[in-house]
Give the backbone structure.
Amino acid sequence: MKNWIVRAVSLYVFNVVVLLLIDLPMSSVSVGWNALWAAVILTLATLALKPTLLRMFRGAASKSAQTRTKVGEKVVQYVLVFIVELIVWVLTVWLSGVDVHGWFWGYVLPPLYLLIAWVIYDLVDDRIEARAGAVFDTVQSKVKGGRASTTGSADATASEPPSAATRAAGDELADGLTPEQRRMLDEL
């Protein structure tokens, strides 16, 4: 559960920044304070809708993959990803207060910016999620530490046996999976 929370929050913050950056150079897209709500929609669509659409489109495209060359297959894959980005962008615009003017400048170009941003996010997401996870753990330990100090002394809490959550975390680290493999399994 913690992994999903950390991933969703880090993606949300990243999406807010991306929406504000899209707003800066483009006069045809006005985001402003709507970036906060639009990032919620964008994050939910990225986590839930995007993998489903990609799986569906790739399944349909794989039926004719043997008739295409390697370059043709790459082009089809890129077009499919762009179509998914376009769907996610249109949903974000419709369900939030983002104001868009113009077909090309408002609906075609921003998904390309999103695509570039998500490629960058994919390259740095492990580090972002690790940093966000560390902040989450720090806050959680301070909250638990504050509660423990009001109920008893620090020595009494230090001598207690490890909790079930601590043992589960130790077992998780001993499973032999890398953080990337664990994240991939969590996504399944």
